[in-house]
């Protein structure tokens, strides 16, 4: 059986500088997006209630600022695929959770925008807020500032909470749709079904990751050892001492392999 292309690579591109810039830009974008969309959701909940927040797409049709940042949110799902490029170039495992999350969020976001899905205001605000924390954390990690490990647990917990709330919003949307019909609740049954399936699958995958990363005996230690062995093998596979010296420059010392796994954005 032929070896995969990735397994033949000698060099591991560390890309620390570009990674710092990338995560910082995404963190700033997410913080600005949260600051421009969350106030609209809070205002609607305080003055109009849950039904309006789930069934009336005023965040697009009446609020120009929120509508603009909704449009940017949808567009941002395409460049966010750049996370995958960093994973491949740094020769880290491309897990199912990562690419499945990115692709399905991209497709669902663009699909929902064409329908002006009213419940999406919740999903957008949650995604902006979680990404604000998550990408800030990764920017610090890339810059070799090591936040306490419980911070990464909090981020994964926030992602799990996001999936639970997403499912709850869809349950409410389904009830409102059956009670009031599409004339009063601007969301399709097809969209609700797709969204519930998506958020439910995310919850299962993130819960599985949370258990393996933080609860399973020896899980964190095993990943650290795997990272060290991968770095050593990359050097040993070099065909000359000079190549070994060059390749060692691209290998991060003691990189936490669990860090990239949490990048499955909310999203």
TrEMBL record:
Pfam families: ELO. GO terms for biological process: fatty acid elongation, monounsaturated fatty acid; fatty acid elongation, polyunsaturated fatty acid; fatty acid elongation, saturated fatty acid; sphingolipid biosynthetic process; very long-chain fatty acid biosynthetic process. GO terms for molecular function: fatty acid elongase activity. It catalyses: a very-long-chain acyl-CoA + malonyl-CoA + H(+) = a very-long-chain 3-oxoacyl-CoA + CO2 + CoA. One of its GO terms (cellular component) is endoplasmic reticulum membrane. The keyword tRNA-binding does not apply. It is found in: Membrane. Its EC number is 2.3.1.199. It comes from the Eukaryota. It is a multi-pass membrane protein. Keywords: Fatty acid biosynthesis, Fatty acid metabolism, Lipid biosynthesis, Lipid metabolism, Membrane, Transferase, Transmembrane, Transmembrane helix. Its main location: membrane. The keyword NAD does not apply. InterPro entries: ELO_CS, ELO_fam. The chain crosses the membrane at residues 20-38, 94-113, 119-138, 150-172, 192-211. Belongs to the ELO family. This is Elongation of very long chain fatty acids protein. It comes from Drosophila simulans. The gene is Dsim\GD12451.
């Amino acid at each position: 059986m032929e070896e995969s292309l990735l397994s033949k690579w000698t060099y591991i591109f560390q890309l620390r500088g570009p990674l710092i810039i990338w995560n910082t830009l995404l963190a700033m974008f997410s913080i600005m997006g949260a600051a421009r969309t969350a106030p609209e959701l809070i205002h609607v909940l305080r003055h109009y209630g849950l039904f309006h927040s789930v069934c009336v797409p005023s965040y697009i049709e009446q609020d120009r600022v929120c509508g603009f940042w909704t449009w940017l949110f949808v567009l941002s799902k395409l460049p966010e695929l750049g996370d995958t490029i960093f994973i491949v170039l740094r020769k880290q495992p491309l897990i199912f959770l990562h690419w499945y999350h990115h692709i399905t969020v991209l497709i669902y976001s663009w699909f929902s925008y064409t329908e002006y899905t009213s419940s999406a205001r919740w999903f957008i605000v949650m995604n902006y807020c979680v990404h604000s924390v998550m990408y800030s954390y990764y920017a610090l990690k890339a810059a070799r500032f090591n936040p306490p490990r419980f911070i990464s647990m909090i981020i994964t917990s926030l992602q799990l909470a996001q999936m639970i709330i997403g499912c709850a919003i869809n349950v409410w949307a389904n009830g409102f749709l059956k009670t009031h019909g599409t004339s009063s609740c601007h969301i399709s049954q097809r969209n609700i079904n797709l969204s519930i399936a998506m958020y439910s699958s995310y919850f299962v995958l993130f819960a599985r990751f949370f258990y393996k990363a933080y609860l399973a005996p020896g899980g964190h230690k095993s990943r650290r050892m795997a990272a060290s062995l991968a770095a050593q093998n990359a050097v040993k596979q070099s065909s000359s001492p000079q190549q070994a010296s060059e390749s060692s420059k691209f290998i991060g010392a003691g990189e936490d392999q669990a860090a990239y796994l949490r990048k499955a954005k909310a999203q």
